[in-house]
Amino acid sequence: MKLRSKRFLLINLIFLLLVVSHYLKLTQVFEQALIKGLLPIERLSANVSNFVFNTGEIISSIKDLRQLNLDLKTENQKLKAELNRLKEVEVDNKYLRQQLDFISISGFKTYEARVIGYNLDNIGQSFLIDLGQTDDPVIGQAVVDSNGFLVGVIESIFPKSARVLLITDRASLVSVRLQTSRADGLISGDYGLEVILSQVPDTEKVETGDKIITAGLSEEMPGGILIGEVEEVWQQTGDLFQSAKIKTYADFNGLERVFVVKFQ
Predict the structure, then answer these.
(1) Among 35, 108, 119, 240, which is most buried by a count of CB atoms within 10 Å?
(2) For 70-114, how does the pLDDT look when each residue is reduced to its tens digit (9 = 90+)?
């Protein structure tokens, strides 16, 4: 107990001396030295504290930026999908306008079909459309592109589709008429390379640039559908008929939608 009392008195005495010395400015030099010595530690502590705070802010900002980036990516995908949808709507409107123009000019009634498959080789030139037996297509009906140019004829019909034989196919045979002279003939394909006009009597006048239209000699295909024009004429000596190479107006590459001319 005595030892503890002595320690307590000693501590109080030291504390009292320090207080008196401070007021008498006897420890001013020591205090200034101590403050100067502790100043770097204080600054370091402040810097560490600021660094920790700023690091937390940076981490929080990174998280916010990541979330913002994800949100922007999601929004970008939505905008891309919407842009694609609008482009398809624009394409739909384009085909609809072309169909209406064709109907108003030609007077033909048509119904739209999508091309769902191709067979373009040296053996056959055909494609499939998404009209089947329930849509009541008829074998022999004309199929035109969006500009109203003849591309082929319905060859066969399945439950959910139909095959269209292109006029460039060798097996294709369509009755046609020269628009100027009104002479009749036949066109057929040449292995997908070109379309040939044949069976035109040698007494008829056939000239380069003459327009070729369907003759309308069958109930399935009306007359007046534009096909192309005469590009080159030839006739063998002694032949009773003359032939010609036809420049077709339809673009057979990249057909997406076509129109079937309705049976009258």
Answers:
(1) 108
(2) 777 777 766 666 666 656 556 555 555 655 555 555 667 888 899
- The number of helix segments (H) and strand segments (E) in the chain equals 2, 12
Same domain, 66 and 185: no
Do residue 152 and residue 205 come from a single domain? yes
154 and 243 housed in the same domain: yes
- Same-domain check for residues 120 and 79: no
Count the domains in the chain. 2
CA gyration radius, the chain:
46
User: What pLDDT score was predicted for residue 127?
Assistant: 93
Domain membership of residue 98 (yes or no) is: no
Give the separation between CA 186 and CA 172, rounded to whole angstroms.
10
State which residues form the domain around 34. 1-84
Residue type, 36: K
pLDDT of residue 124: 67
Tokens 């007046």 appear where?
Answer: 224
Helices (H), 1-27: 2-23
Phi and psi based region of residue 218 (left: phi greater than 0; alpha: psi -120 to 50; beta: remaining)? beta
Q: Which residue has the higher pLDDT, 178 or 24?
A: 178
User: Could you tell me whether strands 257-261 and 110-120 are parallel, antiparallel, or unpaired per DSSP bridges?
Assistant: antiparallel
pTM flag (> 0.85): no
* DSSP E strand stretches across 80-179: 110-120, 125-129, 142-144, 150-157, 162-166, 174-178
Q: Which long-range contacts (CB under 8 A, 24 or more apart) does 213-217 make?
A: 213/176, 213/177, 213/179, 214/142, 214/150, 214/174, 214/175, 214/176, 214/177, 215/175, 215/176, 215/177, 215/184, 216/175, 216/177, 217/175, 217/184
> How many CA atoms are closer than 13 Å to the CA of 82, on its beta-carbon side?
6
